[in-house]
Amino acid sequence: VFPAPDPHEGLVEINSADSATLRRVAGIGARTVVAIMEYRRLLGGFYSTAQIAELKCVTKENFERISKQIYCDSCVISKIDINFASASELERHPYMTREAIRKITKARKSKGGWDSVEQMIEENIFTREQANALAPYLCFGDKPAGFY
Fold first, then answer.
1. Which H helix or E strand runs over 13?
2. What percent of the chain has pLDDT over 90?
3. What is the pLDDT of residues 111-142, one digit of tens each?
4. Which phi and psi (to 5°) does residue 97 adopt?
5. Which among 33, 40, 39, 32 has a CA at the least distance from the CA of 16?
6. What does the mean pLDDT of the chain come to?
């Protein structure tokens, strides 16, 4: 009969917030707003509020203050189709290493692609840590015809 309370009421959603909205969060100054928006653009969105702590301009103490005022909708992040993305598309993502990009482009020529991040770990494309960080940003489109 009564609607459930919104657990995010009063919090700022960091994937859709504009600069003015981010600036209203205690602990986020003008420089941090710019850093958050740029990092969000490079990542394709945040899948966790903990990613804000990755910014050099956010101290541990400041993150603790900020994290109580924000949340993120991970459903709106942009995905990279690992089986078709160009090397330049891959390079733009902060979690992607040059070594991984080299391995991806080389393996795609002979193999065609992958079905899961687990396959990429098994083939030593990503470490478990890299895979965990990148997994929310990856999708696996159909392999090109002729590859199985």
1. strand 12-13
2. 82
3. 889 999 999 999 999 999 999 999 999 999 87
4. -95, 160
5. 40
6. 91
Query: What is the C-alpha separation between 15 and 54, in angstroms, rounded?
Result: 16
Sequence-distant (≥ 6) Cβ neighbours of residue 137 within 8 angstroms:
43, 44, 47, 77, 78, 79, 80, 93, 95
Q: Which residue has the tokens 């470490």?
A: 127
pLDDT above 60 (res 144): no
Could you give the CA distance from residue 54 to residue 60 in angstroms, rounded to a whole number?
10
Determine phi and psi for 31, rounding to 5 degrees: -65, -40
C-alpha–C-alpha distance, residues 148 and 112, integer Å = 7
Global pTM reads 0.84
How many whole angstroms separate alpha carbon 103 and alpha carbon 52? 29
Please calculate the CA angle 34-30-7 and round it to the nearest 5 degrees: 80
> How big is the chain, counted in residues?
148
Angle at 123 between CA 42 and CA 91, to 5 degrees: 20
Residue of 32, 93, 94 lying closest to 63 (CA atoms): 32
Residue entry with tokens 């653009």: 41
